[in-house]
Structure formats: C-alpha cells, structure tokens
C-alpha cells in the first residue's frame, strides 16, 4: 500500500503542477473544482482503473507478488475494484490505513473492509515452487457419459471443493477420502438433479463430471473440436492407437461400465482366445506376452 500511495501521490503532484500552470487565468472556484476532480480521479479512480486492467495487480502488489482475486479464486472485474476503491477512501486515505490494518488483523483471512464488501481476497501469487497436484482423468468408460447433465445450478464453491479434493485425494486417509468423495458426489448429484450411477465410485464420478465441465468450457472458448479433444483425453492408447470402449469389449460410453470395469466379471476377449503363444498354449495378444492395456483404474 505504501508503494501504491507513493506512486499515486507522485502522479497527483505532477498533474496538479500542470493544472496550476495551465489554469492560472481561471477564477478561484474553477481552480478548486479542478483540484477536487484531480484528487478523486488520481487517488480514487487511478487505483480502480489499474486493478481492473491488470486483473487485481497494482504496482505495490506486483512488487510484493500479490493479487486481488474473487472468493472463488477467479479474476476480479470492474465492480469488485470499484467497491474496494470507494471503501478504501474511508479506511485507508481518510484514516491513514488504521481501519484497514485493524480489519485485516481481526479477519481470519486477512481481509480489509473493502475486500469483505467486494467479495475479494488478496492472495500470494509468487510462492516457492513446489510439486502441485493435478486432477486425475476419469475412467475411459465414463468419458462422455455425463454429457446430458445440467451443470448450471452447481455453484463455484462446490466446483472448487471438488477440484481440491481430486488434486489431494492421494494424500488423504482412504476412509476419510472415501467419505469426502461420497459427500461431494451427493452434493453434486443434488445440484444436477441426476443421481450417481450405481457401480461408479464417487471419486471417478467427480472426475468425470469435472472433465465434462472442462469439455463444455473448451467448446465455448475454442469450438467443438477442442471439446471433443477434452472429452477423449482419457481414452487409453494401446500400441500407438486409441482404443474405444467397444473395441475393448465394453459397452458404449453413456451405457454403463464395460467388461473389465470394477464389479463386472469379464473373461478373455475373442482376440485373446484366438491368439496363442509360441509354446502353443493360449496367451494374451502382443509381443513377448505383453498384456493389452485395460484402461484407467479409478482410485479408491
């Protein structure tokens, strides 16, 4: 904040000097009106414009590695910057930052009053590089199965909770992770209006619905080709070519788990029964007795 105030005051002094020299012929009332307008535009409108155009990064935040984001982690817009700037006049400029400091110390998330009313949060953008988690892909036999779900009623907070669970489920206790997945899957099914299919693990269901949302966003942003690519990203590749659920002996996407899925009994395929090893006994297809890929196994 000190860096931002120093930059704003430097601009304010420079603009004031230019106005004084160029409006010396005006009367006192006009000069007073220009002074007030300059103060409001530079010290209030300037930070609002900078945060809006830079998506939450002012000069001081850029130097300290900070950024203003929404509560759900998305970029702020003009209305968020406007509320922060207007309330900042009271809690920062008029009280020399005392109110803002007290509010930040009292808040559990370090938010001042402008952040509370605007629904924003200041986060650290520049942190030490660490190994971050990733959202695992869903099982191939679930790809495209939830294309008919209505995801418009799912709030951003629930999406954020699902993504955080999927990226960290390997670090959780198995029983705790399973109960969390069941709770999130139940909340997601309640919002979409469709129950979780029987036989589908809750973690696999969450991953498949998240992939469906990503595919829809890709179609809106880049067209149908990007959406199809995002949907088919979880299809496994065997010997250099993609294998569809039908080719693996399973049912088409959207019609239940294929043969070989968890909880479904399966035997050797026609190709495996017809292929024999060099010794003459029946064996799996592929070089040197290599087993063909069986697809993704959803985590417990």
Automatic annotation (TrEMBL):
InterPro entries: RDD. GO terms for cellular component: membrane. It is found in: Membrane. The keyword Ion transport does not apply. The keyword Transmembrane applies. It is a multi-pass membrane protein. Residues 1-119 form the RDD domain. Residues 254-269, 277-300 have a biased composition (Low complexity). Residues 219-300 are annotated as: Disordered. It comes from the Bacteria. Pfam families: RDD. Keywords: Membrane, Transmembrane, Transmembrane helix. The chain crosses the membrane at residues 6-26, 33-50, 81-106. This is Putative RDD family membrane protein YckC.
């Amino acid at each position: 904040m000190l860096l931002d105030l120093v930059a704003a005051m430097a601009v304010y002094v420079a603009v004031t000097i230019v106005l004084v020299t160029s409006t010396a012929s005006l009367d006192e009332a006009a000069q007073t009106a220009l002074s007030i307008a300059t103060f409001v535009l530079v010290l209030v409108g300037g930070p609002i414009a900078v945060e809006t155009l830079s998506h939450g990064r002012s000069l001081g935040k850029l130097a300290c590695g900070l950024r203003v984001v929404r509560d759900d982690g998305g970029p702020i817009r003009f209305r968020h910057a406007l509320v922060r700037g207007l309330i900042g006049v009271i809690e920062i400029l008029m009280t020399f930052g005392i109110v803002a400091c007290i509010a930040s110390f009292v808040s559990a998330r370090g938010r001042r009053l402008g952040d509370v009313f605007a629904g924003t949060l200041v986060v650290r953008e520049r942190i030490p590089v660490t190994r971050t988690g990733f959202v695992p892909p869903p099982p191939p036999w679930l790809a495209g199965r939830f294309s008919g779900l209505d995801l418009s009623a799912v709030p951003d907070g629930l999406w954020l909770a699902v993504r955080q669970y999927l990226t960290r489920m390997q670090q959780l206790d198995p029983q705790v992770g399973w109960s969390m997945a069941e709770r999130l899957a139940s909340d997601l099914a309640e919002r979409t209006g469709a129950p979780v299919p029987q036989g589908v693990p809750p973690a696999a269901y969450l991953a498949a619905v998240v992939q469906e949302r990503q595919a829809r966003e890709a179609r809106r942003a880049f067209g149908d080709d990007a959406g199809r690519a995002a949907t088919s990203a979880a299809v496994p590749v065997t010997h250099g070519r993609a294998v569809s659920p039908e080719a693996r002996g399973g049912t088409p996407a959207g019609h239940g788990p294929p043969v070989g899925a968890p909880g479904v009994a399966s035997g050797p395929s026609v190709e495996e029964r017809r292929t024999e090893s060099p010794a003459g006994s029946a064996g799996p297809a592929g070089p040197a007795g290599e087993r063909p890929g069986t697809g993704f196994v959803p985590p417990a």
